[in-house]
Amino acid sequence: MFRKNSTTIRVGDVLHGCTPGRIQSVGYMQVVPLVSDLTDDRFVSPLEGETEIRTTDYGTLAFRNPSDRVLIVPCNAGFVVKQAAQDHAMSHTGVVGASKERRFDSAMCVQQSQGGLIAKGAHRLLILPHALRESALANRDEKEYSKLWNDIAAFNRSVGAPARGDLVAFLKQFARELDQFVAEFECVPNQIGAVVLVDDQIVGVERAPSHAYWRSVWPALIRECYGSLAIQVAKSNNGEARVPASRMPLPEVDTLADLAAAIANVAAEEDERTKATVRELLDARLRLVRDETTCGLRVETVESERFGGQVVRDGQRIVYASLPVTNGSLAEGRWRAAEPFSI
User: Fold this and answer.
1) Cα separations (Å) of 168 from 17, 105, 126, 161?
2) Which of 47, 231, 260, 303 has CB 3.0 to 4.6 Å from 216, enough for a Cys bridge?
3) Spatial distance between the Cα atoms of 24 and 22, rounded to a whole number of angstroms
4) C-alpha distances in angstroms, 336 versus 28, 72, 215, 281, 308?
5) What is the rounded distance in angstroms from the CA atom of residue 304 to the CA atom of residue 154?
6) Can you tell me the distance from the alpha carbon of 238 to that of 309, in angstroms, rounded to the nearest whole number?
7) What is the pLDDT of residues 46-62, one digit of tens each?
8) pTM
9) Is the Cβ–Cβ distance between 264 and 287 less than 8 Å?
């Protein structure tokens, strides 16, 4: 890997060619779908194209891409298997050429007490919980399969799961809640990405190369990555119910007609409030540091006070981006109010 070259872009560049869809709100989470007629079908996700996934050693994930398209393994993708094997996750984004196989030896075990290698096959995709992604990416050059265990233990402790380096302990304890996020937030036609908010704060920006790619990875993003953050927010209230910051109060009404009108008005106000929250981030600057060039694509890591994650670019065109906000930015509550939103 090399990092001699860097460049700067705006978050708005990541959203180029997109328009915002109707906002979806459930509990503490909100999603602004990013819709576009632009779709680049030169790329597949690990759930497309009959990709074969396995571990060749602890800390090494191997992908065989039999398709005639380039495989982009999402940033911090993980794989939980039913067999007796140590579940693994990627520290970073992976690119595998058409009809090629590639091994990544900086992957991480995410199930401390379980031994065994993952057998070759198709496996369920997850994206690491938001709380773990910054550390995983920061240690992407470290070849140590246990490097995320302490972070996983701390994350588990924060939500009341067994405080050990076993992500599966969290996944099992909160399976019902995580499944609900997948059921409640649906993809819309021509969706290619999303801006995700939790408790009225932007927590991530995601963009895929195509509609098909997006549909395949969205359940993993909303379930484990951002759903886990919504669970953390709920747990931070010590079990006490609290109205999400994004919710507007209903006025007093006397009739059903007045109630219907009030609900419509509040929904419109919440929609505009969320759009306003998003507006400010469009001009945020992202410093991109090149990690590698492969298959004609540049894989670049975001070094920013506000955002982390990675982007994949074909020339100047961004074909993939996963930008979770940094933990420091999340603690500050940076993006909670701004001007009207437009893309």
Assistant:
1) 38, 22, 11, 10
2) 47
3) 6
4) 14, 32, 28, 10, 19
5) 24
6) 30
7) 998 789 999 999 999 99
8) 0.88
9) no
